[in-house]
Specification:
Largest sheet: none
Radius of gyration: 38 Å
Shape: elongated
Number of strands: 0
Order of helices and strands: HHHHHH
Length: about 120
């Protein structure tokens, strides 16, 4: 039993004085319990059946992940310059910076950026 803190002397005395006594156990309680356990039928097949659906799911997940590793990754396209420009424009839009560029195709993006950051 957990020891109570020493500052709860009154509480400890109360518990000692009002401690309930457990009821007496029935003489044939153990025999009745064992008979009830023996009478209860426990089919052996039902124990193993619960493991089948998780095993099927695990097998399907392993097959899917193995299939995904066999698929070759797509080759990087030649549009890495457009991807770099997109990332740069996106970063500039998020941080509010204006890119230093004199190309005519970035002018509308700069105009939108300046229009969105105006107070």
């Amino acid at each position: 039993m957990t020891q109570l803190p020493p500052d709860d002397k009154e509480w400890q005395e109360f518990l000692r004085q009002h401690c309930p006594t457990p009821p007496p156990a029935a003489d044939d309680l153990e025999d009745r319990l064992l008979n009830a356990i023996e009478e209860q039928e426990q089919p052996m097949r039902s124990r193993g059946l619960w493991a089948i659906p998780p095993a099927i799911v695990a097998g399907l997940l392993m097959a899917w992940s193995g299939y995904r590793t066999l698929i070759p990754l797509p080759e990087p396209s030649h549009s890495s310059a457009s991807l770099e420009a997109f990332l740069e424009n996106n970063w500039n839009s998020v941080t509010g910076e204006t890119p230093v560029s004199s190309s005519p195709e970035s002018t509308p993006a700069n105009w939108v950026l300046l229009a969105n950051t105006a107070p």
